[in-house]
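Page 42, continued from yesterday. The earlier attempt failed because a stray header line got pasted into the input along with the sequence. Redoing it now with the clean sequence only.
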Amino acid sequence: MSRALAYREHDDTSCADGIVNLHNLSWNDYERMLKIRGDKAVPRFHYLEGELEIMSPSIDHERITTLIGRLLEAWCEDRGVELMALRSWTLKEPKEERGAEADECYVFGTERRERPQLAIEVEWTRGILDKLEIYKKLGVDEVWIWRKGVIQVHVFAGGKFVRAQRSRRFPDLDLVLLASMLDRQTIGQAVRDFRKALADQR
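This time it went through. Structure tokens are written below.
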């Protein structure tokens, strides 16, 4: 079975990513958990009104995250778009009882920002928390969720996230094509094939 097909047919109810859910945790409990973990990149925490999801990503989870990020970065580099990748930047909003650590997130342009414009989540193993419900109070403009071989785009509008066919920030970016490159063996191969496919489209 090809990796692309395996992605589409992947059982996201498995426990490939180590996910632990804790219930009825106060904001102070959440802050203590962050402090105990320290500056490590994993596990990643998502917190929503007393519910805490702790996730230790699998190798496949991290592979997909890395490739999506590198392909986006290559696309931006080719078009002169300035960006900064900030990985699992801890975003918190105490008044709304929400906290998130994306698989990858980005700030575009050169100005310093207090929130990323784009967050990317890879759903290799399905969790119980609604990530979009968390992000809608964190000041993030757009969220991409990879699930079963497809990158779903959600843009913030009217106080909530709505599904979109394309990125609002980068409407010319072909995310279907980008997602088709995620079965490549290496970053270099994925980037080269992506650039060639884009050139062939012109």
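Notes: The first strand starts at residue 18 and ends at 22.
Reminder to self: strip header lines before submitting.
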